[in-house]
Design brief:
By secondary structure, the chain is an alpha/beta fold. A five-stranded parallel sheet has the order 2-3-1-4-5, with helices on both faces.
């Protein structure tokens, strides 16, 4: 690990970028089994945000990332953890840029997802506390702070194994059943469902358009589609 390094601060803050883009930086983290519809819904949401609402977005897709940044990683537990750790750091940069980033990854382990949540949410909370604002705050105001500074939105794209296997758009389940693919989530490797996802999309019952509509409502209600009056952070 490198030690002789110092963070170089920009003259432009995250809030400057958010005001310029008229939006709040945030990561929408899509988790679920292969074939559940994570990337399909994420790219459909991106199209809605860009074409109709002129927002600055980017989709990080699990397969696409493994073509470049994470091409050196496999699918064993250790490599899966490193895969998610790296993506969390990338998302952190996108948020600082004021972007709405959609990360579509199976991300089967709850611990790994929680680590990314902690990484992305800690910056605003640390600034709040370092400014001395924690004095005299009650539990309700602390909860309001956490909601206001939420940078990680966990979206569980829910579809059971049988549904995903029936879809099998890439033919992966068939290969996993035959033993050709090892450590395949839902077949020969576990998937840990989220306990408290901010959004649950039932992709077995809902269409892509209905899922996008549900997410747009969440983003509007959460104030993510405008810069608001937030202070520099």
């Amino acid at each position: 690990m490198a030690t002789n390094i110092t963070w170089h601060h920009s003259h432009i803050t995250r809030s400057d970028r958010e005001r310029h883009l008229n939006q709040r930086g945030v990561t929408l983290w899509f988790t679920g089994l292969s074939g559940s519809g994570k990337s399909t819904i994420a790219t459909a949401l991106e199209r809605e945000l860009v074409r109709k609402h002129k927002k600055a977005t980017y989709v990080l897709d699990g397969d696409n990332i493994r073509h470049g940044l994470n091409k050196d990683l496999g699918f064993g537990p250790g490599d899966r953890q490193e895969n998610i750790r790296r993506i969390g750091e990338v998302c952190n940069l996108f948020i600082d840029a004021g972007m709405i980033v959609m990360a579509a990854f199976v991300s089967p382990y709850k611990e790994d997802r929680d680590k990314v949540r902690g990484l992305l949410n800690k910056t605003d909370e640390q600034k709040f506390y370092s400014d001395g604002n924690n004095e005299g705050q009650n539990e309700d105001s602390m909860q309001q702070l956490k909601e206001r500074t939420k940078n990680f939105i966990e979206i569980y794209v829910k579809a059971d194994v049988s549904t995903c296997e029936e879809r099998d758009p890439k033919g992966l389940y068939k290969r996993a059943r035959s033993g050709e693919i090892k450590n395949f989530t839902g077949i020969s490797a576990p998937f840990e469902e989220p306990d408290n996802a901010e959004v649950i999309l039932d992709s077995k019952e809902k269409s892509v358009d209905e899922c996008v509509s549900q997410l747009m409502t969440y983003l509007r209600d959460g104030g993510y589609l405008s810069a608001g009056e937030s202070e520099d952070r």
